[in-house]
Amino acid sequence: RPTIDRELLESLPNLKVIGNSGVGVDHLDLKMISNFGVKVTNTPHAVADPTADIGMALMLASARRLVEGCQIAVSPDTKYFAVDWLGVEVTRATLGIIGMGSIGYKVAQRARAFNMRILYHNRNRRRKEEEEAVGAHYCEKMEDLLQQSDFVMLVVNLTPETHKLIGKKELGLMKPTATLINISRGGVIDQDALVEALQNKVIRAAALDVTYPEPLPRDHPLLKLNNIIITPHIGTATVQAVRMMAEEAIANMLAVLNGQPIPSEV
Amino acid sequence: MWYHKPVINEELLQSLPNLKIVASSGVGIDHLDLSLLSSYGVKLSNTPFVVSTDTADLGMALMLASSRRLVEGYQMAVSPDTEYFPADWLGAELSGATLGIVGMGTIGYKVAERAKAFEMKILYHNRNQRNKEEESAVGAIYCKKIDDLLHQSDFVLLSVNLTAETHKLIGKRELELMKPTATLINISRGLVVDQDALVEALHNKVIKAAALDVTYPEPLPRDHPLLKLKNVIITPHIGSATKKTRRLMMENMTESIQAGLTGFPIPNEVL
């Protein structure tokens, strides 16, 4: 917000730059904005660490059934803790990262410390040194990553190419014991296909920081499933990140207004 | 035995004159009377190493969930009353924060390995200092006095075993030494923390929050104040609760039992 449409741009003839907080620009009509001679900047540096952290938080919470566990721990009906109540391991499991940009790479750095086997799929392959530093194996075909991963994490930006990247076919390729984690944009997943996959145990579980729309309608089937965790788009919701995004956005906008090189122009 | 049952007391041991070995699941042996077992000539084994990575993973899961307010966030995401997600709803970052590990055994060290990847500053307190290579590998700084660790940490994680020395290790005094913005994480045993002091500290915002996989007793009575506090996450002692690890624990226990019955050296014997 505010929604950047033709009406708004026409009413602001002196507008030079739109400083977007966060890295995603899928909500902006870049072509239209460019036609008005307005520049767009984002804040890629501020978002990387906290978003990677939320990816790890969701993966761990889902694998270990943390939210369910909390509910049992505090429920008035709980009389004892069942011994056969189990989650799945994260250490030494296989993590498939789809989208190995700054955020994806930071996820890989963190996952490596858990001795995870790391696969990644990206438009372009990373350099050998970068791959070796995190022990990541490139999967040129996304199908290979989907078939081998215990955890699939989506860290792409939303573009026409990545819209509904994960649909019925992709979910069907995943292991039935696998977990899908989304920290990118809701539109990267075909949500109806996901509902079906979770209901029919085609995959084990999902953990989503992002959906489409946000929030979901209160009667949406995703809210009723018990093998899903949803968080309210909090990838950058930290005191530190919010300040850094503001600083980064201001630095970008000042650069535009002063005719200097722009750190993060889109 | 699984999860502290059956209770090993004089009565039970007298009724089982042929008992050779008790194989206990997990690494903790605080629930067992070692001298009682010894006096009946019964051997004891546990499963120390297989639980380490899962427990360290859960410690990280609790730290992440607490700092990013994951459980609260989930409740907001699914609540029937939610109309929009507020922009000013914030948690705290792990990167650059200080983690103080109390108890740097196998589990504590694995927590350090994981936390390092999040660019956390790591302090630790232990009966003995680890060697230089071990410290450098995870960038951990030794705090001979626990007070120094408590003063400086944004997250205090307890991974000691429960002994007479560590019983109520964290009480009113220790909680007050912690930063008011700090979070206490317990993956050791409930009794390492003075629970009444913890309730008071959380209630009065002496510390910011707590995340506990262990309490005393388990489960807590349903009217216990810890269950009512907003700034607490409690999980039902699931540190080693994964399919693979439970299987490995079973295999370890079976091996120990077989050795105990056939007079061979017992793997994971507790002496």
Helix fraction bin of chain A: 25-40%
CATH level 1 name of the largest domain in chain A: Alpha Beta
First CA to last CA of chain B: what distance?
Answer: 17 Å
Query: Number of helical segments of chain A?
Result: 10
Biggest sheet details of chain A: 7 strands, parallel
CATH homologous superfamily assignment of the largest domain in chain B = NAD(P)-binding Rossmann-like Domain
Shape descriptor of chain A reads globular
Can you identify the CATH superfamily of the largest domain in chain A? NAD(P)-binding Rossmann-like Domain
Q: Please, how many domains of chain B? A: 2
Low-confidence stretches of chain B: none
Number of DSSP E strands of chain B = 9
Query: How many strand elements of chain A?
Result: 9
The CATH topology of the largest domain in chain A comes to Rossmann fold
**Percent of residues in β-strands of chain A:** 5-15%
Which series of helices and strands of chain A comes N to C? HEHEHHEHEHEHEHEHEEH
User: Which strand-content bin applies to the residues of chain B?
Assistant: 5-15%
Spell out the blueprint of helices and strands:
The complex is a heterodimer of chains A (about 270) and B (about 270).
Chain A: H1 6-11, E1 17-19, H2 30-35, E2 39-41, H3 44-63, H4 66-74, E3 94-98, H5 102-112, E4 117-121, H6 128-134, E5 136-138, H7 142-148, E6 151-154, H8 168-173, E7 179-182, H9 191-199, E8 205-208, E9 228-230, H10 239-257
Parallel strand pairs in A: 1-2, 3-4, 3-6, 4-5, 6-7, 7-8, 8-9
Helix pairs in contact in A: 3-5, 3-10
Chain B: H1 10-15, E1 21-23, H2 34-39, E2 43-45, H3 52-67, H4 70-78, E3 98-102, H5 106-116, E4 121-125, H6 132-138, E5 140-142, H7 146-152, E6 155-158, H8 172-177, E7 183-186, H9 195-203, E8 209-212, E9 232-234, H10 243-262
Helix pairs in contact in B: 3-5
